[in-house]
Amino acid sequence: MKKYTGELAKPLDPMPGFGAVPSKTSGDRVSEVYSQQFRRLFDHFGIDCNNPSLWVQLSLALAQAHVPGFRHRKKAGAKKQWDVFKLLQLQRDVDAMIEQKGQRSRYGVSWVCAQLKDQEPWKSLTDGKGNPKEVLRRNYHYANKLTNSVGRLTARVKK
């Protein structure tokens, strides 16, 4: 939850003349003060003041910020580092290096992965993950499997 800052973090000053039955002038002043605070609250939660459902959005934002029953559970475990885009980038990098060395050469996927393990972004993705070359090799083969599956699925759709 983002902490409240600025005027939202400070309590309001007492308002003279605002009692059980506010006078017209004190009521206008109170209304203006609260209007300003609500505008700040909308800004704090990133709610557009022109949105017709701004009050619903504000109530949900406040509930999620302060009521445990409105919060979503966090997924267990570490964040996933390998998304589809990184897998495809790895596949392109490995294939390009193999092609550059020539198809009939002795340079295969394992050799290329050994070269890539010390280059960014692959170095940071494989740090502390056992054998970096093996991590890259496994993910390269997984990326191939994904692209082959997508290719077969596309071919079926086209029929």
Describe the fold and architecture.
The protein has helices spanning 24-44, 54-66, 84-101, 109-116, 122-126, 132-158. Helix 3 (84-101) crosses helix 4. By secondary structure, it is mostly helical. The protein is elongated, with a radius of gyration of 29 Å. It is 58% helix and 0% strand. The chain contains six helices and no strands.
Write the layout of secondary structure elements.
Layout lengths: L23 H21 L9 H13 L17 H18 L7 H8 L5 H5 L5 H27 L1
State the total count of DSSP E strands.
0
Q: Summarize the helix and strand pattern as letters.
A: HHHHHH
- In percent terms, what proportion of residues is strand? under 5%
Described by strand count, sense and barrel closure, the largest sheet is: none
What distinguishing features does this structure have?
single chain; 159 residues; mainly alpha; 6 helices; 58% helix; 0% strand; elongated
Summarize the structure.
By secondary structure, the protein is an all-alpha fold. The protein has helices at 24-44, 54-66, 84-101, 109-116, 122-126, 132-158.
